[in-house]
Amino acid sequence: xxxxxxxxxxxxxxxxxxxxxxxxxxxxxxxxxxxxxxxxxxxxxxxxxxxxxxxxxxxxxxxxxxxxxxxxxxxxxxxxxxxxxxxxxxxxxxxxxxxxxxxxxxxxxxxxxxxxxxxxxxxxxxxxxxxxxxxxxxxxxxxxxxxxxxxxxxxxxxxxxxxxxxxxxxxxxxxxxxxxxxxxxxxxxxxxxxxxxxxxxxxxxxxxxxxxxxxxxxxxxxxxxxxxxxxxxxxxxxxxxxxxxxxxxxxxxxxxxxxxxxxxxxxxxxxxxxxxxxxxxxxxxxxxxxxxxxxxxxxxxxxxxxxxxxxxxxxxxxxxxxxxxxxxxxxxxxxxxxxxxxxxxxxxxxxxxxxxxxx
Amino acid sequence: xxxxxxxxxxxxxxxxxxxxxxxxxxxxxxxxxxxxxxxxxxxxxxxxxxxxxxxxxxxxxxxxxxxxxxxxxxxxxxxxxxxxxxxxxxxxxxxxxxxxxxxxxxxxxxxxxxxxxxxxxxxxxxxxxxxxxxxxxxxxxxxxxxxxxxxxxxxxxxxxxxxxxxxxxxxxxxxxxxxxxxxxxxxxxxxxxxxxxxxxxxxxxxxxxxxxxxxxxxxxxxxxxxxxxxxxxxxxxxxxxxxxxxxxxxxxxxxxxxxxxxxxxxxxxxxxxxxxxxxxxxxxxxxxxxx
Lengths: 359, 291
What we know:
The complex is a heterodimer of chains A (359) and B (291). Chain A is an alpha+beta fold and 359 residues long.
């Protein structure tokens, strides 16, 4: 069984707690992304799984077996490093073969596997080059090849695509996904790029300050963020987060005061009482412009227009409050114009004072 | 950078620089050239005033290095210089190898396993090079006499190795510090033991550093005179000491003979530097050019 389980895992560097009592499980064949801003502990978590850092407390289990005390070589994991970490004095073929030498496989078997992996990753023509003579994309493929040439119990990727340009990143994303799909191993990918996480992962663990803020499927993370941090971190353009006060309810609709204006939003059965401070979360794509003010609209002035191709991002201001709205590029208002914005009620969120999502 | 400069072509200004560099190089090289020329001159040619640049070359000096007649009319005797050359090669080579092995291991330790007080230890290692060697000559001489190391190969090799060690540690540490720790981590995850990481992954990456350290150490020990004079015996004498002892005698200074010894003495160093020059260039410029 190829699984990874982290229980109550903690890592302290002196007074600094890099990873704070996290729980995580990765099933066989599952791809989990650790996503978060830099310094949130995601790479440290990965290194603890690999055995390159020792855990201060908690447990790491690979394939059901506790591995805390095992050295990296005894854990049988494959890891792709952010800067590829190819062996600079060995050729591409030797780099690929390196993990197999450590396993003491017979040379003919090694040759067969090196050939197979080079074919999969299109590295046949650069076999005899040194890493210093390779392009970024080729280095990346060698790093992946070195990971998949063995039959490890799990795969670990540390920011695997961060050094590639945008086009190459898209190609490699597809290629890695394809390769991983054929291997059915537990895989952990560390990234700070949400697009990478949303496209590659079966489940995403969003991390902040050494804690996991939410661990769920990409769709859930996007549609039902657990708290204000996840809501603000996932999605581009960023979700609008408006400080507001609860006024009262009419059936399933709540009325809020935000920046001097009153708006209505679906709140289902959330437990709110009058004058509760809340934060309203609305994605820029869940807003649309309407021709005149209604009870459930906000009005604001267009401050800045950012064309994004098919769509246009409008920055609106009203008093001190900023609002981002994505509109079709054909319905573009002028800067300085006052516009009215309506919500799609099913795509709005209300966060309580503790920043947890209520609806 | 060097590569792009080569590709650019020399140009007119470049020619001036090239000529200037040639003149300066020639000034530096002139003493060496003079020694080599003198080695092929007869005694009279060597002493001629004005100095002779054109003369009939002779090999008599080179023959004289290995066997010569001290008093006219007597049969030529073995001078022992073949032994002294062997001693120089053996002592310099062994001491550099010892210093390189110990220094590299120590440097890797300092670089990879930071302990409390590492900086202090590194400083203490360096202090041994802060004194002029002559200051410690008496204690070392006494230590050697008491321990019976005087006049032995082991003694002088250990002493030279100790001299080269601080340089080797500091130099190699700077090379190890530059290596990416990720590469070593990758090797560990790929199933390597610490020993294999060191020998298979780290050491090949610092080849340039090893070459540079070896050459500097070799030149230092090869030319060392003071300790060799006091601490080697007849059997373990090195060439610089033996050379000094050929000066004087009843016929005055034999310049041609001295020049021949020096010419022969130059060859091993030139060969080593020539063989290692590619590494050497990378070694001495390491860290100064962004990779």
